[in-house]
Design goal:
The complex is a heterodimer.
Chain A (H helix, E strand, L loop, with lengths): L3 E2 L10 H13 L9 H21 L6 E4 L2 H15 L2 H7 L2 E5 L4 H12 L3 E5 L9 H7 L4 E5 L13 H15 L4 E5 L11 H4 L3 E5 L10 E5 L25 H20 L1 H16 L5 E3 L15 E5 L5 H10 L2 E2 L16 H5 L4 H4 L2 E5 L6 H21 L3
Parallel strand pairs in A: 1-11, 3-4, 3-5, 5-6, 6-7
Antiparallel strand pairs in A: 2-8, 7-8, 9-10, 10-12
Helix pairs in contact in A: 1-9, 2-9, 3-5, 10-14, 11-14
Chain B lengths: L1 E8 L9 H15 L6 E5 L2 E5 L5 H8 L5 E10 L3 H17 L4 E8 L8 H15 L4 E2 L6 E7 L3 E5 L2 E2 L11 E5 L5 H11 L3 E8 L6 H14 L7 E6 L1 H10 L5 H19 L4 E3 L12 H8 L6 E2 L7 H11 L2 H4 L21 H10 L3 H9 L2 E4 L1
Parallel strand pairs in B: 5-6, 5-7, 10-11, 10-13, 11-12, 13-14
Antiparallel strand pairs in B: 1-3, 1-4, 2-3, 4-8, 4-9, 7-8, 12-15
Helix pairs in contact in B: 3-4, 5-10, 7-8, 8-9
């Protein structure tokens, strides 16, 4: 049976050329980049080249780039750095505010909740049924003690692109009035190589990235920091990564990340209409299935820039998400129930769609189809015909 | 001096005619349990002694707690029939109690070998004096002792103290074989445990219905089976593909009857399997009134699909009681892992609580499940433990 992989948002199919080169680099530049002998110097030089090149791809300065183990670490680093930046007394007295959306990835949502348990005030920006945050609601939630605002750039379950640039304008204006700086962070893991965006143009203070979502190796990611002075490191060690993320650098991983970004990021501009057209076609076909609900329902009416064409959320009530996932898996179609990262925890299941105003029957039957740059029209067509065969049988069983 | 464990078995020593058979079964179950360890079992007048290699003490002790038929056991010592050696052994056996400040003791001596120069009373006096002189804080209390050193003089002298409670019951296998309907829930493993305690060896059947149930739900049942295999030697899990049957039931019955029809089909399948396996009965974890399919009317109908007896050891228990036992036997934590064994798609919102037998019979007949059942039994996958 041919397998069709439509779970790229969980992890992308690795690029064989890149992973082969990563292996070669690991063997060639094996030395510790901090060592001062010949081999170490070579590795150090190579690391610098990778960093320069990666910075170019992201259109930032190389001193603004911190390599980490992935998106989750990058998100956690920004949030928990607040703990070291603010004194315990001050946290307990002033209850500094964190504002995030209710549709954040668990690696942002959970640490924010942890901080709220130890003295921070946590507010959530309201999200519309379209999956996009309501900036008017944000305006009402900014307070003089707000220290951080974070919104995911492309939501990992619905593909909704958040208006981060406008958000930044609002926050900066507010900051201008109060004279207090507010850190703006965005989780850009699902945005990199999928939609066009500019880090400097958006004005954010920090952004998280991950290599394995763009066909690079697992276990490597990055944190963009507009001004590294604004982050207090969580760990102490040998001073690597500007001391913000000490530990011997994962040189082969960093190289693989750069290579995958170098391919994926410019490709966003190459044929922007192709993936959008394919996603619209997929949505239209899925919509035809009895009981199918595209999330959000009116997705096709939105501008192409408001949704990542690589992520599509749909529900087939009353069939539970897991059943749809397993039934399609039996037929060779690999998808996820909601978000793969939260599939471990029953607590976070459905949070994103719940925040968009969907009811339990709908969010417990939601699944995510996600595409990548090797997804072909033929694969989409095969998937559609299998989905059309499978779903009515399941909804029929459910008596719907 | 040799370390041993004395094993006492209760009920089986009462069953006169079958005693030999029961003892043989118990010995073979003990051997199976410790097949990876070299042990030697000495039978003597209603009790066994196990000789085992040094370093295996803890493993033997924890294993014995899972062997039905054993009412108690105790660490013991085997020494030559020399009074000095016997005293030394008594001193060793007394030490753990003394260190726990248990200071009232007595000696119980039995002399089977009449050639031994001391009679039972004399043996007790000698050992009592010895212990009193060795541990000054001790006192003799023959009525309410904190602990007792037992001495038996046979071909060797055997001494033991500090009895540990065994699980009781009958050796697994003496009551024949049954088929346990095992789900991933709390109740059915407990039911299997109880029937094993009455000497019933069992194979389990699990009704697997992918994609409606997940691989993780199956993994959970495999884990539960592994836990049950601690109590039931040579335990076997039969995994039956149930999807097609479940779908037929869902498509052709009124939705309120779906659960009951599924239960009935499961009983019918388990009964067929039981006959193939020369089993004499089925075992379920039903508890009266716990859910709609466990009312007397529902049980009458589902039970009617088996002409073998269906044992329901939990029928009169509260959920709380069942949970406590599940905790004690170590299955609770696995049972509550969050992987459903029954897909919500098939669970009616308002199931029939008081089904009318003949109406249910008519629905069941109309489902024509026989072919699907045959096919499913042919496709059973087996996991052995």
């Amino acid at each position: 049976m041919k397998q069709i992989y439509l779970d790229w948002a969980a992890t992308a199919i690795p690029d064989i050329d890149i992973l082969t080169d990563v292996n070669r680099i690991a063997l060639t530049y094996f030395a510790n980049p901090s060592s001062v002998h010949e081999q170490g110097l070579k590795a150090g030089d190579f690391l610098m080249t990778c960093r320069n090149n990666m910075a170019k791809v992201l259109d930032i300065r190389d001193d603004q780039l911190i390599f980490t183990s992935g998106g989750s670490e990058s998100n956690n680093l920004v949030l928990f750095s607040l703990l070291k930046k603010l004194k315990t007394d001050s946290i307990l007295k002033h209850h500094p505010g964190i504002i995030i959306s209710g549709i954040e990835h668990p690696s942002m949502y959970e640490p924010a909740r942890t901080l709220s348990n130890i003295g921070f005030t946590l507010d959530f920006i309201r999200t519309g049924r379209n999956g996009i945050v309501d900036l008017d609601d944000l305006k009402g939630k900014l307070k003089k003690d707000t220290v951080l605002v974070s919104v995911i750039l492309v939501n990992n379950e619905t593909g909704a692109v958040q208006p981060v640039e406008s958000l930044t304008e609002i926050v900066r204006k507010y900051s201008g009035n109060t004279g207090r700086y507010i850190h703006i962070h965005t989780d850009a893991v699902q945005a990199l190589g999928k939609i066009p965006f500019s880090l400097t143009g958006s004005g954010v203070d920090s952004a998280s990235f991950s290599a394995h979502k763009i066909r690079g190796p697992r276990g490597v990611g990055a944190l963009y920091l507009k001004d590294i002075e604004k982050i207090i490191p969580l760990y102490s060690g040998g001073g690597q990564e500007k001391n913000i993320r000490p530990g011997t650098e994962n040189l082969p991983g960093i190289y693989g990340f750069f290579r995958s970004a170098e391919k994926a990021v410019p490709a966003v501009h190459e044929n922007p209409g192709k993936m959008y057209a394919l996603s619209c076609y997929f949505i239209r076909e899925i919509k035809e299935i009895k009981n199918a609900v595209i999330i959000p329902e009116e997705r096709l009416n939105f501008e192409s820039s408001q949704f990542s064409p690589y992520i599509i959320s749909a529900a087939f009530p009353p069939v539970p998400s897991e059943v749809t996932v397993r039934a399609l898996s039996e037929k060779g179609i690999m998808i996820s129930a909601g978000s793969a990262c939260s599939a471990h925890s029953s607590l976070s299941r459905g949070r994103v769609l719940k925040n968009m105003g969907y009811n339990p029957e709908l969010y417990s039957s939601a699944v995510r189809f996600s595409f990548g740059n090797t997804t072909t029209e033929e694969e989409i067509n095969t998937a559609i015909s299998i989905i059309r065969d499978t779903i009515p049988r399941l909804t029929g069983i459910a008596g719907a | 001096m040799t370390n041993l464990i004395l094993i006492k078995y209760g009920e089986i020593s009462l069953k006169k005619g079958n005693r030999k058979y029961f003892e043989k079964k118990l010995v073979s179950n003990i051997k199976l349990k410790f097949s990876a360890i070299k042990i030697n079992i000495i039978r003597h007048q209603g009790r066994f002694y196990i000789e085992y290699p040094s370093g295996q003490h803890d493993r033997i002790i924890s294993g014995l707690k899972e062997i039905f038929g054993i009412i108690g056991f105790a660490p013991a010592l085997k020494v030559h029939k020399e009074m000095e050696e016997i005293k030394k052994a008594a001193g060793l056996l007394a030490a753990p109690s003394v260190s726990k400040d248990l200071l009232r003791f007595k000696i119980e001596a039995r002399r089977t070998d009449k050639s031994f120069p001391f009679n039972s009373y004399k043996i007790a006096c000698e050992l009592g004096d010895f212990l009193l002189s060795k541990y000054k804080e001790l006192t003799v209390d023959v009525h309410k002792p904190d602990w007792t050193v037992n001495v038996e003089i046979r071909e060797y002298a055997y001494l033991y103290a500090g009895q540990i409670k065994g699980p009781g019951g009958l050796p697994v296998g003496v009551s024949g074989r049954g088929i346990l309907l095992l789900s991933g829930g709390i109740d059915s493993p407990v039911a299997g445990y109880y029937m094993a305690k009455r000497g019933l060896t069992q194979e389990a059947i699990y009704f697997d219905s992918p994609p409606y149930t997940s691989v993780k739900a199956l993994d959970k049942v495999v884990k539960l089976s592994r836990l049950l295999s601690g109590y039931i030697p040579k335990f076997v899990l039969n995994i039956l593909p149930f999807t097609a049957i479940q779908e037929r039931i869902k498509e052709h019955s009124q939705s309120r009857a779906v659960t009951l029809m599924m239960r009935a089909a499961m009983v019918a399948i388990a009964c067929k399997l039981a006959k193939q396996k020369y089993a004499l009965c089925l075992v379920t974890g039903e508890s009266l009134g716990q859910v709609a399919s466990q009312t007397p009317e529902s049980i009458r109908f589902s039970g009617s699909k088996s002409d073998l007896p269906v044992f329901r050891p939990l029928i009169g228990m509260d959920k709380e009681e069942i949970i406590n036992i599940a905790r004690n036997i170590g299955t609770f934590r696995t049972s509550i892992l969050p992987y459903e064994d029954c897909c919500t798609l098939f669970a009616p919102v308002h199931p029939i609580v008081k089904p009318v037998f003949k109406d249910m019979e008519a629905i069941y007949k109309s489902l024509n499940l026989d072919d699907l059942i045959e096919e499913a039994i042919d496709k059973i996958k087996i996991v052995t433990f």
